[in-house]
Amino acid sequence: MTDIETRTLEAPGATVTYDVRGDLSAATPEVPALLLIGSPMGADGFGTLASHFTDRPVVTYDPRGVSRSVRPDPGSPVRPEDHADDLHRVIDALGVGPVDIMASSGGAINALALVAEHPEQVRTLVAHEPPSGPALPDRDAALAAVQAVSETYRTKGFGAGMARFITLTSWEGPFPDDVAELPAPDPAAFGFPAGDDGSRDDPLLGQNLISCTHYEPAYDALTSASTRVVLAAGDESGQQMAARAARAIAKSLGSEAVAFPSGHGGFLGDEYGMPGDPAGFAAALRTVLDGDGPR
């Protein structure tokens, strides 16, 4: 088992905690350090995937406001640009030159923002299912659906908000214009409490939901970047919002999204939730990092 070294750094408004597996000095331009990131998923979601890359140093981290990366106001919104600046600081602290990144969901949004500002820090970015509403043809309806989730959380609490969020993320195909007016689902149907405990500091619903899903990639900056940017979507994700956004972003960059095994959490082992296909996901990721696939 690879030893894990935990490090911290101070960023404006947060203490960011990250973990290093392997020997950073072993990173080379051909086989650089690999960052595995999500948002709001933290380092604890990537243990299984990291175990498939013992040939290189692997770095995972907790985004600000999640788990060990504390900040004074945990419920206030955080922009993708703020997360990107944290990632910029982590990569700079590693001191091993450009890295490869596999970023999933909100982490993919944040990594796209990072590459737009600091392309020199990233050799290859695999952006797996970034849920960008503005990337979609039905952007207005998609953003209205997200706003409905946020409003439900604000007025009714975590259980009701999560029930609506799951309905949003599992929706197949374009959103209808009246999606925000559809009846709210029953939290109990998803195993969530119907009551409201009054808290509004959830990292997903309170901190990242709006800023993440409303982020529009900087296409000109990404197209001109030295970074190889590869969009990816799960082959079981169908026409769900995040997968559709991955394909739309790839098209805007003049490429096509690469199909990865399983769904939105395809890299997950037994960390939590439904397992994906981490071995298959790792094999697909290795193929892309080795240079087989679109720019």
List keywords for this structure.
single chain; 295 residues; alpha/beta; Rossmann fold; 8 strands
Characterization of this structure:
It is built from 9 helices and 8 strands. The protein is of the alpha/beta class. The model has no long low-confidence stretch (mean pLDDT 96). Strands 1-2-4-3-5-6-7-8 form an 8-stranded mixed beta sheet, with helices on both faces. Helix 2 crosses helix 3, helix 4 runs antiparallel to helix 5 and helix 4 packs antiparallel against helix 6. It has 2 domains: 204 residues, Rossmann fold; 73 residues, no CATH class. 35% of the residues lie in helices and 16% in strands. The two termini are 33 Å apart.
Brief digest:
With 295 residues, this protein is α/β, with parallel strands linked by helices. The protein is built from nine helices and eight strands.
Strand content: 15-25%
CATH class of the largest domain: Alpha Beta
Please tell me the CATH architecture of the largest domain by its name.
3-Layer(aba) Sandwich
Order of helices and strands: EEEHEHEHEHHHHEHEH
Helix content: 25-40%
Helix count? 9
Here the CATH topology of the largest domain equals Rossmann fold
CATH-defined superfamily of the largest domain: Alpha/Beta hydrolase fold, catalytic domain
The count of domains is: 2
Described by strand count, sense and barrel closure, the largest sheet is: 8 strands, mixed
Strand segment count: 8
Poorly predicted runs: none
Counting helices, strands and paired strands, the structural category is: alpha/beta
End-to-end Cα distance: 33 Å
Mean pLDDT level? 96
Q: Within the largest sheet, what's the order of strands?
A: 1-2-4-3-5-6-7-8
Shape descriptor reads: globular
- Nearest-angstrom radius of gyration? 18 Å
